[in-house]
Design a protein that fits this description.
Number of helices: 7
Number of strands: 10
Distance between the termini: 21 Å
Strand content: 25-35%
Oligomer: single chain
Radius of gyration: 17 Å
Largest sheet: 6 strands, mixed
């Protein structure tokens, strides 16, 4: 069955679903995972994002997403001015990312609360995105599901503890990936779920020894 979204594309401010709508979603995802109002953003454009991004409004779309806008927000073309009003300092440059999709970007963010985030993501067409790196660790998720991201020490037992807690909370795991920078180092669990992860479950998980940080992305249409 063909999804009508695949035929018509997203509701958006143009001109391009990949360079504009996808870029807004990347910025919005990064804002959510940062968990704070961004006050500084270093944005590194790769491939066609670097070559044609300005003409397609990719730069303004990324900043719009960092401000919390959606792809259909009519204020997207004014995002630079709005960012300046809110005290967000943004810089752009070009980068070559190894084995990256042509529509890729690396964002280095600083939040008002001092939190930081390094996120690499790409726009794969039709407004859809893929997050490929978080803080230097390879990941693979899209934001098409509710997504729980757990940073933890690479040690035994955490997977069972987390999946048991979600099951008891009535949350079904649609897709799960485990990533680490090295054995015994930092690890990231990415759990994409059919249901929203209740706040009480997320708070329960935060109490586990060895859990360093938890972030949660709630699907836009969820």
């Amino acid at each position: 069955m063909i999804d009508i979204f695949d035929m018509l594309g997203p509701v958006m401010v143009g001109p391009s679903s990949s360079h504009t709508a996808g870029a807004v979603r990347i910025g919005n995802m990064a804002r959510t995972l940062l968990g704070s109002e961004p006050k500084g953003a270093k944005i590194h454009l790769h491939g066609s994002f670097a070559e044609t991004g300005v003409g397609h409004g990719t730069d303004k779309a990324l900043v719009a997403g960092l401000l919390g806008m959606k792809p259909d927000d009519l204020e997207i073309p004014n995002s630079f001015a709005l960012a300046e009003e809110r005290g967000m300092h943004v810089t752009f440059d070009e980068i070559t990312l190894k084995n990256a999709h042509p529509n890729s970007v690396l964002l280095n963010l600083l939040g008002e609360d001092g939190s930081t985030l390094n996120m690499q993501a790409c726009s794969i067409g039709g407004g859809r995105i893929q997050v490929t790196k978080l803080d230097g660790v390879d990941v693979d998720f899209s934001g098409d599901y509710h997504t729980l991201i757990i940073h933890n020490r690479d040690d035994k037992g955490y997977i069972a503890d987390v999946t048991t807690a979600l099951s008891r909370g009535g949350v079904n795991i649609a897709r799960m990936s485990l990533c680490r920078d090295k054995r015994g180092g930092n690890a990231i669990m990415v759990l994409e779920t059919d249901e929203k992860v209740p706040y009480i479950v997320r708070e329960f998980l935060r109490q586990f020894a060895g859990i360093i940080h938890i972030t949660y992305y709630e699907r836009e249409d969820g």
